[in-house]
Amino acid sequence: MRMTLADRRRNQRRKKARNLRNGIVPPPATKRSLNKTPVGNTASPSKGISRIARASTTGQTPTVVPLENLRAQTIEDVKLGIRPYNALKKAGIHTVGQLIDLSEADLLGIKGIGQRTIDLDIVPKLAALDARLKLKEDAVPALAA
């Protein structure tokens, strides 16, 4: 009798669970598992965690980038998503300094940037750099989209 794909997968799950219960180490990484993002502590603690978290795990004091150096960084260094990055480039915003000089209202005026992009992509990435957007009363006049 041939084993179906569903049967093979079920047996693999059972074997994996049994090995975990018995403390058996999983097999070495395959090509497919190398593409997956590791979770938790990895061999190189500097990848995938913020610089403050990395400093706390390595026992170092966190280093803060001076504001002048932060303002000079390009928005590529912020690691934004492709769509917000392209929208900001098209609007003529090329450095972090130009980005933090804008308010949320100014960003909403840029085509391709919405509230969700600001809340989920731009603000958290700036917070990781210890920076934030300008408040409404401090903002420069809105950009022409």
Q: Which radius of gyration do the C-alpha atoms yield? A: 23 Å
Helix percent reads 40-55%
**Structural class, judged by helices and strands?**
mainly alpha
| Total count of strands | 0
Average the pLDDT over all residues and give the rounded result. 74
Gross morphology: elongated
Regions with pLDDT < 50 over 5+ consecutive residues?
A: 40-56
Main sheet attributes: strand count, strand direction, barrel closure: none
Q: Kindly report how far apart the N and C termini lie.
A: 66 Å
Task: Write out key terms for the chains shown.
145 residues; mainly alpha; 8 helices; 48% helix; 0% strand
Structure notes:
The model is unreliable at 40-56 (pLDDT under 50). Helices cover 48% and strands 0% of the residues. The protein is elongated, with a radius of gyration of 23 Å. It has helices at 5-22, 31-34, 51-58, 67-72, 82-90, 96-100, 104-108, 115-128. The protein is an all-alpha fold. The protein contains 8 helices and no strands.
